[in-house]
Write a structure and sequence with these properties.
This protein is mainly α and 399 residues long. It is 70% helix and 4% strand. It has 15 helices and 3 strands. The chain has a 3-stranded antiparallel β-sheet with strand order 1-2-3, with helices on one face. It starts with 8 loop residues before the first helix and ends with a helix.
């Protein structure tokens, strides 16, 4: 029984379904050779083959994460955070950082690229779990509150320089959510909000960000300009109806909907498979979040509780923002849909997070068995010390 690895099978099943469905939708969204693909000499299997390679690598990282004990995760929390920050800074080094679409967010890693902001969010969750579960942390102390906020701000400065407002926003929400979970006084959050509002306004007033906000408020004002992507997303979702127009039959992927295989792949799900498939995808993410919270609530270790809660919120928050963006409930952020969108960095980090959650679920089952075994051994030792070994053996034989 001690040798048997217990884990949350439902969590693994949900992840497998999402990843498998994601591979199907990546192929569907890239199987048509558009004029842009033809110009770049790309065939219909180019993105699918790269995505499947990433899936196998991500599974390897998930299995590897399953073997890392919570104690080791806690030990390497700060080094991982420092390492992720160094990777973020390396983006600005010539010939190492990669630019695309006016942003510099990727590192050149053979045979592809890697986005360090994805790793930074995972590292921040592990660090916060270690920090707020430590005996020295006090939820009623302003100093204890400021330390993680300052660390988060250092990361956000680098994010804004890339620029990657979506990563900055998601890390900010994640950090404050975990601090609220730890029982921090709400007035600290109110004070911090007052300080951050002018900074957010300043960032939003940047011309290209302001265009995104205005397009979000009224995309039909410039349907061929700044509102084009959101309008095409609406058309894709509306065209699908209840059951969709059929897998592989999308019209919007024919160079109408930009980023249909990455940030806006959910729009393609709605177009090809309809409201039914879109609702199932949303329900799967809700179930994944619930399984993660159940793992957290089952734990007696504060570090495991905060880590499982943080990882569950990290995946759920990214999915929620993506849903909001493609349905016009939030300005465009450039965040892929976990497990489904084409994007190696996101898939690697999220599968690693699932591996950690599986490890935490199994770890609690093993700990319960060990606690029961330890209890039996202690009782046996106590009986031997009171009655002697011979008397204890005779009593056991009689039973």
């Amino acid at each position: 029984m001690l040798r048997r690895w217990q884990y949350d099978k439902w969590l693994l099943l949900i992840t497998a379904v999402l990843a498998g469905f994601g591979a199907l939708m990546v192929y569907s969204s890239t199987s048509v050779v558009t004029p842009l693909f033809a110009k770049r000499n790309i065939d219909q299997f180019f993105y699918f083959k790269r995505h499947m390679f990433t899936v196998f690598v991500a599974i390897f990282f998930m299995v590897l994460a399953c073997r890392i004990s919570p104690e080791n995760l806690k030990r390497f929390a700060i080094p991982l955070l420092v390492f992720s920050f160094i990777l973020l800074v390396l983006i600005f080094v010539p010939k190492i950082g990669v630019s695309a679409g006016g942003a510099k967010r990727w590192l050149r890693v053979w045979p592809s690229t890697f986005q360090p902001s994805e790793l930074a969010r995972l590292a921040m969750v592990v660090f916060l779990a270690k920090y707020i579960s430590s005996p020295s942390y006090r939820s009623d102390s302003s100093i204890s509150f400021l330390i993680p906020v300052l660390i988060m701000s250092a990361f956000q400065i680098v994010f804004i320089k890339q620029p990657d407002f979506g990563a900055a926003m998601s890390m900010g929400i994640l950090t404050f959510a975990m601090l609220v979970l730890s029982g921090v006084k709400l007035r600290y959050l109110a004070y911090m909000s007052v300080l951050f509002v002018p900074v957010i306004i300043k960032l939003v007033m940047e011309p290209y960000r302001l265009k995104r906000v205005l397009a979000f408020l009224d995309p039909w004002k410039e349907p061929q300009g700044s509102g084009f992507q959101l309008v095409q997303s609406f058309i894709a979702l509306g065209s699908g109806g209840f059951t969709g127009i059929g897998l592989g039959e999308s019209r919007q992927k024919l160079s109408f909907l930009p980023e249909s295989h990455t940030d806006f792949i959910f729009s393609l799900v709605g177009e090809e498979l309809g409201f039914v498939a879109a609702a199932i995808v949303i329900c799967l993410f809700i179930l994944l979040f619930i399984r993660g919270i159940l793992i957290a609530n089952k734990s007696k270790d504060p570090f495991v509780y905060y880590l499982a809660s943080g990882l569950s919120m990290m995946i759920a928050l990214q999915a929620l923002i993506n849903f909001f963006v493609v349905t016009g409930l939030a300005p465009t952020k450039g965040l892929p849909l976990p497990f489904i969108s084409y994007g190696g960095s996101s898939l690697l980090v999220n599968m690693t997070a699932i591996g950690i959650l599986l490890n935490l679920s199994g770890n609690e089952d093993r700990r319960d068995v060990l606690d029961r075994t330890k209890g039996l051994i202690d009782r046996k030792k106590a009986l031997i010390s009171v009655y002697g070994r011979e008397h204890h053996v005779e009593a056991a034989d009689e039973k």
